[in-house]
Design brief:
Strand order of the largest sheet: 1-4-3-5-2-6
Number of helices: 10
Structural class: alpha/beta
Radius of gyration: 21 Å
């Protein structure tokens, strides 16, 4: 184990529960539970504010899109009092560094079609650690309530009698809008914004015409670049203009963010040409025509 008592398990293939068992066998959990963190380790239930929780407790925390500057003060306080940290694959090292050195850190990240820890194992791991009397922080990219499976985790914790609270985070669409200076809604042009996902439980994507056809609706697609051609065709079929502005952003909110602009008719080709490797957002609607992209990152289809 590392000499500084930081029990960090990297994001690799395999099961989080098995990783936790290995940490426990090496004495890490016992060491953390007995460590003199002081008042910062006292996690309280919303229903019992001010009363120290004798058993374990889980904080479901939004980490934002990746840059530590996007952490809320509440998220930072939760991290600083964590005794066990279960974090997503996209959480950056500078955010992980905010947790105490003796905190058990286990990656339970999910990255699309890559080998990763299942949701069932993540749920089990939260309960295992909380039942040992630890303050467990389940650290999620973005906002837990936006495609973050947070309700599945809350229901599982409640079924096992584990107290919990949820702390919001900056979702990627909001971070992208600030980073590239475009609105998500705009008076007289974009009266609503809808977040959609290209990854569903059964792997399908269902775009109903009534939800996507409004020309005054801003659409933001998360985890959908692999379905760009299907989305483009569905939007055109629903009546959206081929000239509708689109913006496609990789690693929104991070210093490494890359953005492309174009029209709906170009969207699938832009995604294919870019060969993205990081998480991608696709914005479709009039509001995205206001995106201010630096010349070095702005791209159009080659003639």
């Amino acid at each position: 184990m590392p000499h500084d008592d930081t029990f960090l398990l990297p994001c690799v293939s395999g099961g989080g529960v098995e990783q936790a068992q290995r940490v426990e066998s090496e004495g890490a959990i016992t060491a953390v539970r007995n460590a003199p963190f002081g008042s910062t380790t006292r996690a309280t239930s919303p229903a019992n504010a001010g009363e120290e929780k004798r058993g374990g407790f889980v904080s479901l925390v939004g980490a934002g899109p990746g840059d530590a500057d996007h952490l809320t003060l509440g998220a930072l306080k939760a991290l600083q009092s964590a005794q066990a940290l279960l974090y997503d694959a996209l959480v950056s090292e500078d955010i992980l560094a905010q947790a105490p050195q003796k905190c058990v850190k286990i990656c339970v990240g999910k990255r699309g079609d890559r080998l990763s820890v299942s949701q069932d194992k993540t749920n089990e791991l939260m309960v295992r650690l909380a039942q040992k009397g630890l303050h467990v922080v389940r650290l999620k990219g973005g906002d837990p309530s936006v495609f973050g499976r947070v309700e599945e985790e809350r229901l599982y914790l409640e079924a096992h009698g584990i107290g919990h609270k949820t702390l919001p985070g900056v979702t990627a669409a909001s971070a992208a809008a600030a980073q590239f200076a475009f609105p998500l809604t705009h008076r007289g042009e974009a009266r609503s914004v809808t977040f959609l996902t290209g990854r569903t439980k059964d792997g399908s994507i269902d775009l109903r015409d009534e939800s996507i056809s409004d020309p005054m609706a801003s659409l933001v697609f998360y985890m959908s670049s692999h379905n760009a051609a299907h989305i483009e065709a569905s939007l055109l079929r629903a009546g959206r203009s081929p000239q509708t502005p689109v913006v496609i952003i990789e690693n929104a909110g991070r210093p490494t963010a890359r953005a492309l602009s174009g029209t709906l008719r170009e969207m699938a080709a832009l995604v294919s040409q870019a060969a993205f490797e990081g998480p991608v957002l696709m914005g479709v609607g009039t509001a995205f025509g206001y995106a201010r992209l630096a010349a070095t990152v702005k791209a159009r289809l080659q003639a």
